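Pasting as-is:
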Amino acid sequence: MVGVPVRFGAVAAVVAEVARQEVLSRFRRLRAADVWEKAAGDFVTAADVAAERRLAEELCGMVAGSVFVGEEGVAADRGQLELLRGERPVWIADPLDGTANFVRGNERFCVMVALALSGSVLGAWLCAPALGLSAMARAGAGAVAGGRTLRVPGGDRVPRRVVVTDPAYRTAEDDAAVARLAGAGLSLVPCSGVGVVYLELALGRRDAAVFGWTNVWDHAAGVLLHQETGGYAATADGPGFPAAVDRRPPLVLARTAATAAWLRRIAAG
């Protein structure tokens, strides 16, 4: 990997092992004491905590001088986000994306890891263990799943279905954007597990997405995966998804820049 020596396959093995041992092993086996709320409606479980701890320990040992930014660590100390602005390689992790699904017994949850340097995302690893889905991407070298190179179909055709922010997490601004997209005649699908959605985009099972939030742990890995399959991503601040600066929503993902720009115009009104 350019600029950072790392054993790409070894990272994939760690992510898969953590997903299996710390997350899947607890699926549909949670006790009451294993689930609590960081904020109203924002669940965290023993699986989130255990997976983040394992990922931090093992991944930082794989790249000399690297640091770790995880969703649960940031929840406890938002100052950790400053690590994204530093000069050291940084692992960015959502140890259990789709925690609410996980708590409900829904299989749409995912472990997501990205490796970044100076704001550039260099590698991505995603694993949805209950669905048997995983994929990885290396910046400038493509994306693979199950040993198969991933490539989304090209063309500027109108997306058949567009994934949008789940109603439970929408702001008033999100609601307005979703209403405009629906008014344009698009078929909208509420997001259920953003990590799984990224895997579905990479596998060609989804056409496009318009997300109303830009937490770095939710998107750094998925955006690189999508881009390395030939897709296009941009926020209100421009193309791509740099991991060292705040990005203004919406985050739009499509198969081409033209389609993404068209969706953004509709969403913005």
